[in-house]
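Tokens for chain A. Residues wanted.
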């Protein structure tokens, strides 16, 4: 049994969620995958997957083996990179994570330019709005908005954003605008599903945080939809400044209650490797940081 090859097959099954999916991803037959996992379980004398007719689920032993296998393969890749020159010339796989709308609006153009400038680098971009564990998700670089709690992360600040309340000029003309946070409750609002459990927006007034109850008429599935609904005059919405800065500059959105906005949140590029980062990670961080710092949408005032 080739342990490294079996590890790769095992990790492919974990990622794909099935033996058939792993066989397709690796371009090998499904029986080879099944036999390899069976040999691995027999060798380890543990069950790595709980199997049903419809799905497979990692056991506790399987989750531990998944983490350690990924660590071993990552360290092997680092060693190969070191001797092959990847720590000098950017090349190989780069895994990046970012919030969905931020990635679409502000990171995608940077990644595309980076790929053009560094043709030996491949990028896998994961767009997701929840905070992830870089080690568990095997992410090299992530963009994170907000104050960092994990002291084990290396962070490079690239800007700041804040929550902004806004509406379209047409809505303002037809319904007026709130002059204080208390008046927000008199207006129809647009929220996202992630806010569905929250019936308030937060403001800062008289030296303390103030929560305002909403009269929500329109809930949508993502941030971009909320912005578009606001542009079309469906009500007030409260979004991150980077999400609405283009609309405000274009005049399709009007910024409201600026004097009551909360303090800005930092925007950081984060990674785990520090000085041991390979050339592709270092180069991307330097490349992206320079462009993001020049982005007016990340300089919330």
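Reply:
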């Amino acid at each position: 049994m080739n342990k490294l090859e079996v590890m790769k097959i095992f990790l492919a099954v974990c990622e794909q969620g099935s033996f058939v999916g792993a066989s397709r991803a690796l371009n090998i037959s499904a029986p080879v995958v099944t036999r390899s996992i069976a040999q691995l379980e027999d060798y380890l004398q543990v069950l790595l997957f709980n199997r049903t007719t419809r799905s497979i689920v990692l056991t506790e032993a399987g989750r531990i083996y998944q983490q350690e296998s990924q660590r071993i393969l990552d360290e092997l890749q680092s060693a190969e990179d070191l001797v092959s020159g990847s720590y000098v010339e950017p090349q190989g796989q780069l895994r990046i994570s970012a919030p969905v709308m931020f990635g679409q609006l502000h990171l995608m153009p940077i990644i595309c330019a980076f790929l053009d400038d560094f043709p030996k680098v491949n990028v896998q971009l994961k767009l997701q709005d929840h905070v992830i564990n870089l080690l568990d998700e095997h992410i090299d670089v992530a963009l994170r908005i907000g104050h960092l709690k994990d002291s084990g992360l290396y962070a490079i600040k690239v800007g700041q954003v804040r929550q902004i309340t806004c509406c379209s000029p047409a809505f303002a003309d037809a319904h007026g605008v709130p002059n204080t946070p208390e008046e927000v409750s008199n207006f129809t609002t647009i929220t996202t599903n992630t806010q569905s459990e929250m019936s308030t927006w937060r403001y800062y007034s008289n030296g303390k945080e103030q929560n305002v109850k909403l009269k929500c008429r329109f809930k949508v599935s993502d941030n971009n939809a909320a912005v578009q609904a606001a542009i079309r005059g469906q009500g007030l919405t409260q979004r991150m400044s980077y999400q609405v800065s283009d609309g405000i500059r274009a005049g399709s959105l009007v910024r409201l209650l600026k004097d009551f906005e909360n303090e800005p949140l930092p925007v950081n590029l984060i990674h785990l490797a520090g000085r041991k980062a390979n050339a592709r990670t270092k180069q991307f961080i330097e490349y992206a940081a320079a462009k993001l710092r020049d982005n007016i949408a990340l300089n919330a005032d």
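Residues 85-161+265-298 form a domain with the D-Maltodextrin-Binding Protein; domain 2 fold (CATH 3.40.190.10). The mean pLDDT is 89.
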